[in-house]
């Protein structure tokens, strides 16, 4: 038995939850896949999976072996892909998705720079603040801010988005300045429709995490729309610092509750599977990470 092949089969069985799905994927019979797993367990002298007619579940040893196996396979795939990038010219179509604000401010210009480096590559660039289904919509790589909701996706951190609580001086003069996160319940808060925690804003306090359920008269699915509402003295919002950096410097917008700053959000390059990442996706992800390191507002911290 080829242990490396068996390791790959085991990982795919866990990821798909199905022997038959892996058999179809690998062009093998289901009994062959089952025998390979049994042989692997025999060689390791431990059971990796609990099997029943309805479901599969990892044993404690299986869970540890799964995580280790994924890291090993990802390292091998990355090594092979990096070699491919060095040996071949990037061609074909690269489909990229990003949020509107980040896309317009940073990604758009960087995509043009990347394409100039690889003239044989065609790029399909789409901006949307909703979370697109990468598989269904044929997206090769999405640049996302915040928590990765779909555990089946693979992600690589390429930057960090600091967040701050903001309002205009005019709004604060009229309605008062919150001194603690709990004070926000008495204010009109502008809500982001796709926030993973809903109406609950999270802060850092001296004694740990603080969660406050806020409310307001406007909910928007776009960061620029929220910024516009803040500038119109409508209320208080949570915003990525890079989006309102110039407004803060000019004094048009004021940051509040700095001692309770919300935790920063990761910026990730997200793709459907770590096991099937093309050379062009890896090259683009590495390019973005390198370029983001040059930009203080989004560099990895």
Helices, strands, pairings?
Elements: H1 3-16, H2 19-26, H3 30-44, E1 49-51, E2 56-58, H4 60-87, E3 92-98, H5 100-117, E4 121-127, E5 141-145, E6 154-161, E7 163-167, H6 169-175, E8 189-192, E9 200-205, E10 208-213, E11 219-220, H7 223-231, E12 236-240, H8 245-250, E13 254-256, E14 265-271, H9 279-292
Parallel strand pairs: 3-4, 3-5, 8-11, 8-12
Antiparallel strand pairs: 1-2, 5-14, 6-14, 7-12, 7-13, 9-10
Question: Low-confidence stretches at least 5 residues in length (pLDDT < 50)?
Answer: none
Seen as an oligomer or otherwise, the chain set is single chain
CATH structural fold name of the largest domain: D-Maltodextrin-Binding Protein, domain 2
Q: Strand count, sense and closure of the main sheet? A: 5 strands, mixed
CATH superfamily of the largest domain: Periplasmic binding protein-like II
Helix/strand class? alpha/beta
Please count the beta strands (DSSP E, at least 2 residues each): 14
What average pLDDT do the residues reach? 88
In terms of DSSP E residues, the strand content is: 15-25%
CATH class of the largest domain: Alpha Beta
The domain tally reads 3
Kindly provide the radius of gyration, computed on alpha-carbon positions and rounded to a whole number of angstroms. Answer: 23 Å
Number of helices: 9
Q: What sequence of helices (H) and strands (E) makes up the elements?
A: HHHEEHEHEEEEHEEEEHEHEEH
CATH architecture of the largest domain: 3-Layer(aba) Sandwich
- Tell me the strand order in the biggest sheet: 4-3-5-14-6
Task: Please state the overall shape, judged from the principal axes of the Cα atoms.
Answer: globular
Helical coverage, percent range: 25-40%
């Amino acid at each position: 038995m080829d242990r490396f092949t068996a390791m790959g089969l085991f990982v795919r069985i866990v990821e798909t939850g199905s022997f038959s799905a892996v058999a179809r994927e690998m062009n093998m019979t289901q009994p062959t896949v089952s025998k390979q797993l049994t042989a692997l367990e025999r060689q390791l002298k431990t059971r990796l999976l609990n099997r029943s007619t309805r479901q599969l579940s990892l044993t404690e040893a299986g869970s540890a072996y799964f995580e280790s196996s994924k890291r090993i396979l990802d390292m091998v795939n990355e090594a092979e892909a990096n070699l491919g990038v060095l040996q071949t010219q990037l061609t074909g179509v690269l489909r990229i998705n990003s949020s509107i604000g980040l896309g317009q401010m940073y990604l758009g210009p960087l995509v043009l720079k990347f394409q100039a480096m690889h003239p044989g590559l065609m790029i399909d660039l789409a901006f949307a603040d909703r979370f697109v289904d990468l598989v269904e919509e044929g997206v090769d790589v999405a640049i996302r801010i915040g928590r990765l909701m779909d555990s089946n996706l693979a992600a690589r951190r390429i930057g960090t988005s600091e967040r701050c609580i903001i309002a205009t001086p005019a709004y604060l003069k009229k309605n008062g300045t919150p001194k603690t996160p709990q004070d926000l319940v008495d204010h009109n808060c502008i809500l982001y429709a796709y926030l993973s925690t809903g109406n609950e804003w999270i802060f850092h306090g001296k004694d740990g995490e603080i969660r406050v359920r806020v409310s307001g008269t406007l909910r928007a699915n776009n960061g620029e729309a929220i910024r516009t509402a803040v500038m119109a003295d409508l209320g208080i919002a949570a915003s990525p610092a890079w989006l309102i950096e110039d407004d803060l410097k000019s004094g048009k917008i004021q940051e509040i509750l700095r001692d309770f700053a919300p935790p920063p959000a990761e910026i990730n390059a997200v793709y459907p599977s770590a096991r099937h990442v093309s050379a062009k996706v890896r090259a683009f992800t590495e390019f973005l990470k390198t370029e983001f390191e040059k930009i203080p507002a989004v560099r990895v911290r």
